UniProtKB/TrEMBL annotation:
The lineage of its organism: Bacteria, Bacillati, Actinomycetota, Actinomycetes, Kitasatosporales. It comes from Streptomyces longispororuber. Residues 136-367 form the AMP-dependent synthetase/ligase domain. This is AMP-dependent synthetase/ligase domain-containing protein. Coiled coil: none annotated. Residues 1-34 are annotated as: Disordered. PANTHER family: FATTY ACID SYNTHASE, NONRIBOSOMAL PEPTIDE SYNTHETASE. Transmembrane segments: none annotated. Pfam families: AMP-binding (PF00501). GO terms for biological process: amino acid activation for nonribosomal peptide biosynthetic process; secondary metabolite biosynthetic process. One of its GO terms (molecular function) is phosphopantetheine binding.
Amino acid sequence: MSDPRTTDPSTTDPSTTDTPVTGTRADTPVTGARTTDAWHELLHGRRWSSPDTMWVEDGTEYSGAEVGRLAAAVEAGVRAHGPARVVVIRSRSRLGCFAGQLGAWRAGSVAVADDHRLTEREFDRIRPDLVLTVSADPHPSVEPAARSPHRPRAEPLPDEVVAVNYTSGSTGSRKAVAVGRHNLLALFACRDLDVPAPGGRLTAGSFATPTYDGWWFDTWRTVARGGRVVCLPHVNDDVFAWPGLARTYGISRLLLPAAVLATVVEVLPEAVADIPWLFSGGEQFRVSTYRQARQAGLRHAFVNLYGPTEATFATHHYRLPEDLTAPAVPIGRPLQGCRQVLRPADDGPPGTRELVVTGPFVCLGYLDDGVLTHRFHDERGRPSYRTGDLVRTDGDGDLVFAGRLDGEVKVNGMRVDTAALEQRVTALPRVRDCRVVQGERHTVAFVRTDPATLGDPATRTRIETVVQDFSTAIGISLVDRYPVRAGGKVDVPTLMDHYRTTDKAEET
């Protein structure tokens, strides 16, 4: 067994038939001429003149050639307005964002997709030179929305920057992360993310919104590997359409945020019954969700993905066994090309270390006011990012998430390990999940339970007993589901609003 403290596995499933990205391997740095060649092939390859369906959205099929023509219109729009280093592609359709990114890249710009959800603060992070509005239907169109009124940048962005990831903002305002072309090419080439593709061509369902890192996996990696993308409606829009789309197009793979997957498994498991590979990421994948999926008859291959937004998309993976006996779902081992270093964590629980990720997935740094303000590298200048996540190694050599370095909160002057509290509550009967949230005035354990037991006094008593072992000052709110943001992560402000207006009001 390899030493889990510093490892670089490169295992691959021989049954996968995804088409590899030309001239790239995730475990070999993609630099210099090889980067240029691979990037050029991605932007100008034959796929963009193909009559085969590449994209499906809102009941309409688009060939590779049609996507390519829309991208050409965006490229012309960028070039017509002079030099534009950073271009925002604003579109209500996911195809508009995707083709817009392609067109902006062809014009040599940093492409930032905006589905009309970016805020002014998030615009200030990147300071775009041009904003284009792109429409795919009923008639494709590209129109300039605005030029940036900002002064020139204090310094130019590095040439290798081509895109931006926005963090979820769960620990504050959303940060902008500079993504390099080498980051994306390494992700597209990573064989550990391949799945079997019946008929030789992958069809992937797409749920991710364009401003979140799952977008690179859902869409660009799929197309780069020769596949087609089928856009799924949001859960709140029309989740009942999912089974028909999965059967019609033969969707083989779907990535869902952990909170969304938990909701789908509980409320409508048939929505994903025909999709053989389900990936979960963004937040901790709970054992209770997996067991509920198995009880609902879902026999899929489930893969738990882990990775900070600062590392493009994901760095670790773990395929769940048929019978999971562990108390927590591991985050597993590094993806091909990624490396890990486990640093001593003096303030962490015994047996835990801080996870540091290195390698080609690590992005360049944070952007603010249009410039790189913080680079991700170690003392030798190599790509490196300290996640702030605490992990431990299980008996099989897999990493298990054990909380955050900053995961301890003070409640009435006493330190509380929120990860330990959440794990103990989640292990209780009829409990699906637990999230501890600290606001300005309250610290609350939001416990997701079986809907039938929301008003059960015995269930609440068991939960209170565990929570009070940690602190009697922590409030408790029982919910049947968590509200989620557009990107699929739990909407913490909405949870706190719910507590202040309902649970807290009832207490007083």
